[in-house]
Design goal:
Largest sheet: 5 strands, parallel
Low-confidence stretches: 1-60
Domain Glycosyl transferase CAP10: 171-421
Transmembrane segments: 20-41
Bound molecules: 2-acetamido-2-deoxy-beta-D-glucopyranose
Strand order of the largest sheet: 8-7-9-10-12
Keywords: Membrane, Transmembrane, Transmembrane helix
Protein name: Glycosyl transferase CAP10 domain-containing protein
Strand content: 5-15%
Length: 508
């Protein structure tokens, strides 16, 4: 009963509090019973849940009702998916901010299906490339699992989608999608072009994309946590990194380039290891092996991301494909030295070289890194500004709210392309917050409790900006190449000067 009174209180009718507890409880219980009855009879009045009905009357300044994860027997009411969450989205504000520019890539990623639309046949053909299929019908989520993915990536991705439905209750349209939660590209352009253009490519969601692939880019699982390696949900990690970055001013940080990670996932990472400090040569680079097995055994003492902001420069290098580390690296207020990536995630295409990061080519990267560090130490104002701008991008544009808004718009635009009415596939099972989180233990459970959306948003999603003109995309690609060339030119001039000096010295 206390809980019900508390809910009432939260709804902002605290002035009634004195006479509340019992009357409110009786009222609420009868309301719930009537509601349940009407619902059972499928009488449509019950579109809005009782809690929302109350909140409507006190619209202006109410606190939002909070529905945390509750796995007790009573809360579940004998069901896997209890009905305990308000099911109507009623924003108080009509805020119409425009979403950040990186949202414009949504149109680009869906372009492939603009004319054909997405048919059930395409979904059928994509199944073999997916770990699971996720269908939303009337706000309920159904999942059909095809393959066992790596770690708990898929679970946290489904979790993220469930949170989106809690944030924008009733606003996420019906849809039917395939998700691949591995690293490698699945749907290659070359298989659907030229003489191969006999069938349309299946739409498959994935965490990253590349020039060669047609996969649809979706925020990765780490935004809700990476339990296997103790990386908290993004909101908490970001604020921890922010604090970590404040501990040491840029000038007081080590004047070298830092990287810590697992080098054994990719050839080019092993190649990077050659740039590490030796007793013979110093490339201004300090590299550290992150042995996750060892870190797990030792309780993750040495792997905290917020403790990795004590170098002026931080290296970003891709893993097997993209790496989730990008956002953590950029958030440190250090200048990011980005080894030319081949893959992008949903926000990274809008990062601009020499504005948000310093570009490093793949070949001869040790030399590039050494030059970048020396340049930065000589031009500390500019290096700091690049570091700051990169962090600002992450801290201000990559908020969790924007991550949800991105998901919302991507799914919304995607659903507009569907040529069929999504229905629950026969083998799919309903999932909900409780069915996913209640069986979890340890960090998995903790991160879910941490990242759960407790109440519907009080404002609508930001407004999706229009697509980029094709020329604008070309110009941005061009600009990136130009900047990289510029940096190489500076480096050449510099090394020529060095060589000349050496030659001079040998002449004297
Ligand atoms: C969970 O729900 C039950 C039944 O509604 C309630 O008694 C209990 O206080 C709730 N627990 C939490 C942590 O909200
Ligand atoms: C057609 O697809 C095959 C198989 O992936 C590929 O090897 C070939 O290069 C493609 N053809 C063209 C013209 O792109
Ligand atoms: C790089 O060099 C430093 C200093 O010698 C050393 O502590 C570190 O373990 C080396 N890193 C790798 C990945 O070998
Ligand atoms: C990582 O640590 C584990 C346990 O301490 C050890 O057995 C393993 O050899 C280490 N791996 C590497 C690549 O150093
Ligand atoms: C940095 O400054 C030193 C001393 O002025 C100079 O010798 C060196 O060439 C500069 N390096 C770069 C990359 O600007």
């Amino acid at each position: 009963m206390g809980e019900h009174a508390k809910v009432f209180h939260k709804l902002g009718i605290g002035r009634l509090h004195g006479l509340l507890s019992t009357t409110a409880f009786v009222f609420l219980v009868s309301f719930v019973l009537i509601a349940a009855f009407l619902n059972w009879m499928q009488i449509p009045i019950i579109q809005s849940s009782p809690l929302i009905y109350i909140s409507r009357n006190t619209k202006k300044h109410h606190e939002r009702v909070q529905v945390p994860l509750n796995c007790t027997h009573a809360a579940l009411q004998g069901r896997k998916c209890p009905k305990n969450y308000p099911n109507l989205f009623e924003p108080e504000e009509s805020s119409t901010e425009t979403c950040p520019d990186y949202f414009r890539w949504i149109h680009h990623d869906l372009q492939q299906w603009k004319t054909t639309g997405i048919t059930e046949d395409m979904i059928e053909r994509g199944k073999s490339s997916a770990h699971f299929r996720l269908v939303i019908v009337g706000g309920n989520v159904y999942v059909e699992k095809y393959k066992r993915p790596f770690q708990s990536r898929d679970v946290f991705t489904k979790w993220g989608i469930l949170q989106l439905l809690r944030l924008y209750t009733g606003k996420v349209p019906d849809l039917d999608l395939l998700f691949f939660s591995g690293d490698e590209a699945k749907i290659m352009k070359r298989d659907y072009q030229g003489p191969n253009a006999t069938v349309a490519p299946p739409p498959v969601f994935r965490y990253c994309g590349s020039e060669e692939a047609l996969d649809i880019v979706f925020p990765d699982w780490t935004f809700w946590g990476w339990a296997e390696v103790n990386i908290m949900p993004w909101e908490d990690t970001l604020s921890a990194i922010k604090k970590g970055a404040e501990r040491l001013k840029w000038e007081d940080r080590e004047p070298y380039a830092f990287w810590k990670g697992n080098p054994y996932v990719a050839e080019h990472r092993l190649d990077l290891m050659k740039c590490n400090l030796t007793d013979k040569f110093d490339w201004n680079v300090r590299l550290f092996h992150q042995n996750w097995t060892k870190a797990t055994q030792e309780g993750f003492k040495g792997s905290k991301l917020e403790d990795q902001c004590h170098y002026r420069y931080k290296i970003y290098t891709e893993g097997a494909t993209w790496s989730v580390s990008e956002k953590y690296i950029l958030a440190c207020d250090s200048m990011t030295l980005m080894i030319k990536p081949e893959y992008y995630d949903f926000f990274s295409r809008s990062l601009v070289p020499l504005q948000h990061y310093w570009p490093i080519r793949r070949k001869d990267k040790c030399r590039g890194l050494k030059f970048a560090v020396e340049w930065g130490n000589n031009h500390s104002q500019r290096a700091q500004a690049i570091g700051k701008a990169g962090s600002k991008f992450i801290q201000e544009l990559l908020t969790m709210r924007n991550v949800y808004d991105y998901m919302y718009h991507l799914l919304n635009e995607y659903s507009k392309l569907l040529k069929f009415k999504p229905t629950k596939p026969p083998k799919a099972r309903r999932i909900c917050v409780e069915s996913l989180a209640c069986p979890q233990k340890d960090l998995w459970r903790k991160f879910m409790e941490q990242s759960i959306v407790k109440s519907p948003s009080n404002k609508p999603p930001c407004e999706l900006p229009p697509p980029y003109e094709p020329q604008a995309i070309q110009a941005s690609v061009h600009n990136k190449e130009k900047m990289a060339k510029q940096v190489e030119k500076w480096e050449t001039v510099y090394s020529n000067k060095l060589n000349n000096k050496k030659r001079w010295r040998s002449l004297i």
